[in-house]
Design goal:
The complex is a heterodimer.
Chain A (H helix, E strand, L loop, with lengths): L5 H10 L6 H24 L17 E2 L9 H5 L5 E2 L2 E5 L7
Helix pairs in contact in A: 1-2
Chain B lengths: L9 H7 E12 L36 E2 H13 L3 E2 L6 E4 L9 E4 L6 E11 L5 E15 L3 E5 L11 E5 L6 E7 L2 E2 L5 H19 L11 E11 L9 E4 L4 H20 L7 E6 L4 E7 L9 E2 L10 H8 L6 H12 L3 H9 L3 H9 L4 H19 L10 H12 L5 H12 L5 H8 L7 H14 L1 H8 L6 H11 L6 H11 L2
Parallel strand pairs in B: 13-14
Antiparallel strand pairs in B: 1-10, 1-11, 1-12, 3-6, 4-5, 4-16, 6-7, 7-10, 8-9, 14-15
The chains are: A mainly alpha, B alpha+beta.
Chain lengths: ~100, ~500
């Protein structure tokens, strides 16, 4: 299992919109490596007879009919929001995504 | 960021480069409820009134797939000649942007429900006759729409200079089908037209299937146009850019043309194209830099654990195949032959948004050329004058067929027919009622006609002499005088006959 590099952590941090300084990057890279190695140890146990699976239940085609059901009022929807304005969720200015 | 771009002249672009197009079209389905929850999907509701714990991504909420949306996806795939997956999964596309409150969009990744299809696209050829281009469809997959952001504090309502953004999640979770083509190469100067024709025909197909409102202006069909250039003859694919916000058919064509000229400018200067999304500006006809395009890896796709796989039975797929309408392109070709229209006449009819109107008018009994004449002439002019779509003018195909029937029977002529249309638009009743109320019927009283002809001859002795000398073409002036006298309510052909009889 290759080590997670400082640059990879920096890239992940950018994607996750987390601001990390050099000290934090250096600190987190080995930690993430350990987590990945731990998870990777599962591969050692899984033999060729164990197919990769994404779902625990052997179900397919669970559908609902196209029927409208009651949801939340705008007041309820916004009640947990740290800030709202004009009946909308207020979020910080988003940098670097659109210009 | 500079918005000034060095554009290369169109002919020079074509001399040096080959364009490659890729089109991603998002179709918002017209299901009553959202993709994974029962919230309504109506356009234009008050903000955040069509939301629930599932589409707001609240903890513990579980999505369930809308069966109708899956049906629509399969029908779209079948209409595009795709294979339908026997088994496929949803996937989480992870990104941090507030238009998705879950921090991921539920989409499909490497297991799209529809794949490997094609569409025959009709484009005008060099000699004016139609040519067919086969556009390969890579995939059509199911996903959900995002919320709408309003940027506050910026001068233009856009993100530059904005202090913060306000998000409405009514649209979040509305079912989308994303249809992706394979790279379309070898089109040269026709690339912009092919892009437009593809989106136009895809829209027609979606309309025929009845699976979406298919309104580009309301965003229920959205086209992203990937464009790259490679040196002429190299046969490679260069870095691509993707203009967003291309929300009219005309813009599809313009955006492709613009990007080709811009790419050539960058490449000619020895620079390289940055792979990015770009923002198309409808008003100025330019694109500006958007966000750098993430690699698929950056989205860290993984199978959606909260939704079980979709495995459409072959019986279900065949049942849905049985519900497909006649392919609009084939139907157009069939009707063009039935109607005896030239390629150009047909293109103009379709281009004016009058194809369905002419079809219905012919079905109501009018001759195809007469139907075409009214819709593309009189109706198109009136629609243009009042700034509405021709279909929203307020005159129905039945009205046009009824008016044409009255022309055919000799009750009115074309000039009077125009006054009948005035009456129809003013809400004065049926064509017959309008003719009666306005006194528009053609005067077939030979005595009255004869008197008017005599008066015109007497008033124009020089013209009459010319006709007596055999200059029959001069009769036009007398016909005009008689028609004026009769306030247009005469059969011009009969007037001509009378004039020539009297002066023979």
């Amino acid at each position: 299992m290759p080590e997670i590099t400082r640059d990879e952590v920096a890239h992940l941090a950018t994607l996750a919109r987390i601001d990390l300084d050099e000290v934090e990057l250096a600190h987190l890279a080995p930690q993430l490596s350990v987590i990945l190695e731990s998870v990777a140890s599962l591969s050692a146990v899984a033999g060729d007879d164990v197919p990769p699976t994404s779902h625990a239940l052997p179900l397919t085609n669970v559908f609902r009919e196209d029927v409208v059901t009651p949801g939340l009022s705008a007041e309820q929807a916004l009640s947990g929001a740290p800030a709202s304005e004009q009946q909308r969720f207020s979020v910080p200015r988003i940098l670097g995504d659109e210009q | 960021m500079s918005t000034t771009q060095h554009l290369i002249a169109w002919d020079d672009v074509l001399a040096s480069y080959d364009p490659a197009l890729g089109l991603e079209v998002h179709v918002e389905l017209n299901t009553r409820s959202k993709m994974f929850c029962g919230c309504p999907t109506e356009f234009g509701a008050e903000p955040n009134t069509q939301v629930c714990p599932t589409c707001l991504g609240l903890p513990g909420a579980l999505p369930v797939v809308n069966r109708k949306a899956v049906e629509s996806a399969i029908r779209i795939g079948l209409a595009l000649n795709c294979d339908i997956a026997e088994w496929c999964r949803f996937a989480r596309k992870n990104y941090f942007y507030p238009d998705m409150p879950k921090n991921f969009q539920t989409s499909q990744y490497d297991e799209p429900i529809c794949f490997e299809g094609f569409m025959q696209v009709t484009v005008p050829g060099e000699d004016g006759a139609d040519e067919t281009v086969r556009v390969e469809i890579e995939r059509a997959h199911m996903e959900e729409d995002t919320g709408k952001s309003l940027h506050v504090g910026g001068a233009t309502g856009r993100i530059q200079g904005a202090d913060h953004s306000l998000v409405d999640y009514n649209r979040a979770g509305i079912p989308l089908i994303e249809i992706v083509t394979k790279p379309i190469t070898g089109m040269g100067e026709r690339a912009p037209l092919v892009a437009k024709a593809y989106v136009s025909q895809l829209r027609d197909l979606i309309v025929a299937l009845g699976v979406s409102d298919a309104r580009m202006d309301q965003g229920s069909i959205r086209a992203d146009v990937n464009l790259s250039l490679s040196p002429r003859g190299a046969g490679t694919l260069g870095p691509r850019t993707e203009p967003k916000n291309v929300n009219s058919l005309r813009s599809v064509e313009r955006a492709v043309r613009y990007e080709m000229q811009r790419h050539a400018g960058v490449l000619d200067a020895g620079d390289s194209i940055l792979q990015e999304t770009r923002h198309w500006h409808e008003d100025t006809g330019v694109t500006t830099s958007g966000r750098e395009k993430s690699d698929a890896d950056d989205y860290r796709y993984f199978p959606e654990p909260d939704l079980v796989p979709v495995a459409p039975s072959r019986e279900w797929v065949e049942e849905l195949r049985g519900t497909l309408p006649e392919n609009p392109t084939l139907k157009r070709a069939r009707l063009q032959q039935d109607w005896g229209f030239t390629d150009l006449e047909m293109r103009d009819t379709v281009g004016a948004g009058a194809f369905g109107l002419v079809e219905d008018t012919v079905a109501a009994g009018a001759a195809p050329q007469a139907a075409r004449k009214w819709w593309l002439g009189e109706m198109a002019r009136r629609a243009n004058d009042t700034g509405v779509e021709i279909a929203e003018l307020g005159v129905s195909p039945l009205d046009v067929a009824a008016v044409q029937a009255l022309v055919d029977s000799g009750s009115i002529n074309d000039k009077l027919a125009r006054q009948v249309f005035d009456g129809l638009l003013a809400g004065e009743g049926t064509p017959e009622e309008i003719i009666a109320a306005r006194g528009l019927a053609i005067v077939s009283d030979e005595g009255a006609l004869g008197a008017a002809v005599d008066a015109a001859i007497a008033a124009n002795p020089a013209v009459a002499d010319k006709i007596r000398d055999g200059k029959v073409a001069a009769a036009g002036a007398l016909i005009g005088a008689v028609m004026k006298e009769m306030r247009g309510q005469a059969d011009a052909g009969r007037v001509r006959e009378l004039i020539l009889e009297k002066l023979n």
